[in-house]
Fold this sequence. Notes:
Layout: E1 5-8, H1 12-21, E2 27-30, H2 34-43, E3 59-62, H3 65-69, E4 74-77, H4 84-91, E5 100-103, H5 116-123, E6 132-136, H6 141-145, E7 150-155, H7 159-169, E8 174-179, H8 182-204, H9 209-229, H10 240-251, H11 256-265, H12 270-277, H13 283-297, H14 302-311, H15 317-325, H16 347-359
Parallel strand pairs: 1-2, 1-4, 2-3, 4-5, 5-6, 7-8
Antiparallel strand pairs: 6-7
Helix pairs in contact: 4-5, 8-9, 8-10, 8-11, 8-13, 8-14, 11-12, 13-14, 14-15
Amino acid sequence: xxxxxxxxxxxxxxxxxxxxxxxxxxxxxxxxxxxxxxxxxxxxxxxxxxxxxxxxxxxxxxxxxxxxxxxxxxxxxxxxxxxxxxxxxxxxxxxxxxxxxxxxxxxxxxxxxxxxxxxxxxxxxxxxxxxxxxxxxxxxxxxxxxxxxxxxxxxxxxxxxxxxxxxxxxxxxxxxxxxxxxxxxxxxxxxxxxxxxxxxxxxxxxxxxxxxxxxxxxxxxxxxxxxxxxxxxxxxxxxxxxxxxxxxxxxxxxxxxxxxxxxxxxxxxxxxxxxxxxxxxxxxxxxxxxxxxxxxxxxxxxxxxxxxxxxxxxxxxxxxxxxxxxxxxxxxxxxxxxxxxxxxxxxxxxxxxxxxxxxx
Length: 360
């Protein structure tokens, strides 16, 4: 059965998800740029992102949020993380009360320290909260658009809604799994971008395969600590949204965050690298937000701190790397005895950690 679908965000990921959804559903694709929407409707191509992909006739682009959301039962959000709040505040009056809202946004809001689910809960009326679904996992936009085999996770506290999205989006080349650990899935999706920058820096300095493997492994430990401290389940970080996405983003040549790290490791300036990319690399702002969040949670995050010191120009990559390698020696399983790793937290306590951070 066809589900009227809206995709908010005509960047590379939003465009690829519109292509995916248009297999069986008519899709309204919202763009903030009039020239992009006009070109999509006229030429069947996005002139800025994935411009070599011919877009199906079932996709209609618009810059009008009211038009994009009218009658839409499935709303997929794929905007930059630091724009999510403003876009959804504008979209809120036009959302159908029973719509399922899927966030494909990966990041931590800098000002609040909230995950994207937390931002949506802050912005949207309570009627929408049970139907908030997080989409995450190893998924380059270009490969989705080209129908390369892809597997992702859909997380929702009320898993029945994730199952509905699973049925709507799954096909022979795009397989969806469901999950209830929203905070774990979102923390993993956000923080893997930070580790990808770290791995890129090491590779840019020709640090070698040993260093790459170590950074990914210890990076996963760091991500897991931060997630579990917010109430996530440790097992989540061994799944698609955790190690799966981490492996892809740290090693794949299409990874924007890895490419930022490569440039920094080769001595280039951050501003120059970002300008050359021409797309948002979520890891830069997420790194800054993650440092603040880890400090508030009392979680050690040495790799994240190292990346932050480099992107903010406080330390050269070689200096930061040396400090990371010469930290006090310890057991691999050593944990801060003051850290709380309880796993019986529900969705509200998990987000309250970040909200308390804002209040303080």
